[in-house]
Design a protein that fits this description.
The chain is mainly α. It is built from 10 helices and no strands. The relative contact order is 0.11.
Length: about 190
Amino acid sequence: MKNAEVTKTQFLDVAKKLFAQKGFYGVSIASISGELGFTKQALLHHFGSKEGLYGAVLEGISRRFLEALEEGPDSLQDAVRQMFEHMMREKDDARIVMRELLDNSERAEQSRKWYLRPFLDRLLEIGRQNSNWAGESDAEIFARVYQLVGAVNYWAISGPTLWRMYGEDTMTEIGDTFPEALLKDL
C-alpha cells in the first residue's frame, strides 16, 4: 500500500474510534490528526473537511454491511444474524450507526448523501421476501426492519451497562438467547 493510502486508512481508523466515542460534534479535525501526529492540513488534503471524513467512515460501514448482505443471506433472519454478529464484533460501527440516526438533526438539513440508505434499502428488499410479512406495505416492512436495526445496535452498545446492572450470569444467558428471541416471530 502506498504511503498516501496508509495515511488515509490511519485517518479513517482513528476517526471511526473517535466518532464512535464522542459523536460527530465532539470530535475535531485537530484531535484526529493530532492522535496520529499529523497536521490538520494532512487530514484536509485527504478528505476535504470533517464532514468528508465522517462521510468516508459512514460509507465504509455501509459498504461492509452491504458486502455481508450480498454474500447471500437466505432470509431476513440470516441477514439480521449477520448484522448482529458484525455489530458485536465491531462495536464502533454500532455506536456510529446509532449516533448517525439519532444525532444527525442539524446535518440532515444540509446532507446531500445518505451513506446508510443503501444498507437500509437492501434490508427492506430482504424484508419484502419474508413470507410472514406478505401483504404488508413497504411502510410497515420498513418500520419492522428499522426496529430490528435499532434493537441490534442498541444491544451491541448497551452491554457494559446491562452487565453491571444484571451481572455476568444473567447477561450471559440473555446474550446467548438475544438474537433468537429477536428473530422468534419473523
